[in-house]
């Protein structure tokens, strides 16, 4: 072990945003491949919702309010609720698979590598929530119950912006954003499950958990037939919905039961070379991510983002502490919380940024963390009630903040990408005395 000048043992310095593990590289590649298109489709769904709600508001309300489903099973929901409670369960199933893979083979499997994104995610939720609460407890007409609205980060949108402007950004920094967003989703799931559940029917909850357990056991035993797995998944969702817990949590629980170790895709069944290096969680993520990113989330956006916008509405919206707290929380709170948490980790754990990276890179990632579309819209609906005045103002706040965060964060990371590209080109040309990206040539880099 290295020693200090006094001769006492010295702890080794840890590098932040260093090389990725093999499992993390595969997780990153899987997410980047599909979420780019998913982000564009999500944007298209939001734009379509705004156009429809403003050009034909009566038609929009009539369609979103159309009730479908059996009343005997407490599933007589309008289409807007089917999108939020049903289709988003697919989105949360994919989130559950992401979490399982990150915990088993990714950056979250070791405390040392999980500490930074976990701390950044916590900072990126606590600071926006605090800003929202300050605004809504000090201004007249505030609604403190919406504190969780500005705490979420939308992976699809953030990755889509990063894919467009992030050419030249180091791979480890991209992985940091994704891992942070996954931990952010986990914390958001806990908030939804605990903070927005008033009453619970224990018998129905136990029944749902039993279906989840049988689903996981079947997978462990090598059962792959959809004729058993799909009914079990639907039963767990329906029972959880009827129990009083938000039904999307069923998707997360089901995702957590899927084996995530390489080779587990064939465990209990015939082993083939094709699946030897792929886990069942990886295969299911390949299968369901396009459904989530390409259909479930855009349709949810279509029914969640449809607010009528005019000059009167805009004036009333940003006079409402709810919208003001959401915008400030996402645009200022997210980058502040993420950056501050990263600085604290570097300060108190002897960790340092990887060579060539600067704090402006971290700020850029933090700004993209302020894109809080999908889960923020869901939480707004849960906190204020769909169609309420506060809900509409929160929706406008989320849309405005996400757009602003994307523009500012995209500009910062585009600049940083050019800086990193120029450094790499200089190093490849063999500049004398250069053995890699020169961290000391950038005022934003850590020495």
TrEMBL record:
It catalyses: Na(+)(in) + 2 H(+)(out) = Na(+)(out) + 2 H(+)(in). Residues 438-447 have a biased composition (Basic and acidic residues). Keywords: Antiport, Cell membrane, Ion transport, Membrane, Sodium, Sodium transport, Transmembrane, Transmembrane helix, Transport. Residues 424-447 are annotated as: Disordered. The keyword Transmembrane applies. PANTHER family: NA(+)_H(+) ANTIPORTER NHAA, SODIUM ION/PROTON ANTIPORTER NHAA-RELATED. Belongs to the NhaA Na(+)/H(+) (TC 2.A.33) antiporter family. Na(+)/H(+) antiporter that extrudes sodium in exchange for external protons. This is Na(+)/H(+) antiporter NhaA. It comes from Cellulomonas avistercoris.
């Amino acid at each position: 072990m290295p020693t200090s000048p006094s001769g006492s043992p010295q702890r080794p310095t840890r590098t932040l945003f260093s090389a990725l593990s093999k499992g993390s590289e595969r997780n990153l590649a899987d997410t980047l491949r599909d979420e780019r298109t998913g982000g564009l489709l999500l944007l298209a769904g939001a734009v379509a919702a705004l156009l429809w709600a403003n050009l034909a508001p009566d038609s929009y309300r009539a369609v979103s309010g159309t009730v479908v489903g059996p009343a005997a099973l407490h599933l007589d929901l309008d289409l807007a609720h089917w999108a939020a409670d049903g289709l988003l369960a697919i989105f949360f199933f994919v989130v559950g698979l992401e979490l399982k893979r990150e915990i088993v083979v990714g950056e979250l499997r070791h405390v040392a590598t999980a500490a930074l994104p976990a701390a950044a995610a916590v900072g990126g939720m606590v600071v926006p929530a605090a800003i929202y609460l300050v605004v809504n407890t000090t201004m007249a007409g505030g609604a403190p119950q919406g504190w969780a609205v500005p705490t979420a980060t939308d992976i699809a949108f953030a990755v889509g912006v990063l894919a467009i402007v992030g050419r030249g950004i180091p791979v480890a920094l991209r992985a940091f954003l994704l891992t942070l967003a996954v931990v952010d989703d986990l914390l958001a799931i806990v908030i939804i499950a605990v903070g927005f559940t008033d009453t619970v029917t224990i018998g129905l909850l136990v029944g749902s958990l039993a279906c989840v357990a049988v689903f996981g056991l079947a997978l462990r035993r090598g059962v792959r037939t959809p004729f058993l797995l799909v009914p079990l998944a639907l039963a767990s969702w329906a029972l959880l919905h009827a129990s009083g817990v938000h039904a999307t949590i069923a998707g997360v629980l089901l995702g957590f039961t899927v084996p995530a170790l390489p080779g587990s895709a064939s465990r209990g069944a015939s082993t083939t070379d094709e699946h030897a290096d792929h886990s069942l969680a990886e295969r299911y993520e390949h299968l369901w991510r396009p459904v989530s990113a390409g259909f479930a989330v855009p349709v949810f956006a279509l029914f969640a983002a449809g607010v009528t916008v005019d000059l009167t509405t805009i004036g009333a919206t940003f006079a409402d502490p709810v919208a003001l707290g959401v915008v400030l929380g996402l645009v200022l709170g997210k980058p502040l919380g993420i950056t501050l948490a990263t600085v604290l980790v570097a300060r108190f754990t002897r960790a340092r940024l990887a060579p060539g990276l600067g704090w402006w890179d971290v700020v850029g990632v933090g700004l993209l963390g302020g894109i809080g579309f999908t889960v923020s819209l869901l939480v707004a609906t849960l906190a204020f009630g769909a169609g309420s005045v506060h809900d509409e103002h929160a929706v406008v706040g989320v849309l405005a903040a996400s757009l602003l965060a994307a523009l500012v964060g995209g500009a910062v990371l585009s600049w940083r990408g050019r800086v990193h590209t120029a450094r790499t080109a200089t190093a490849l040309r063999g500049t004398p005395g250069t053995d890699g990206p020169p961290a000391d040539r950038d005022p934003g880099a850590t020495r």
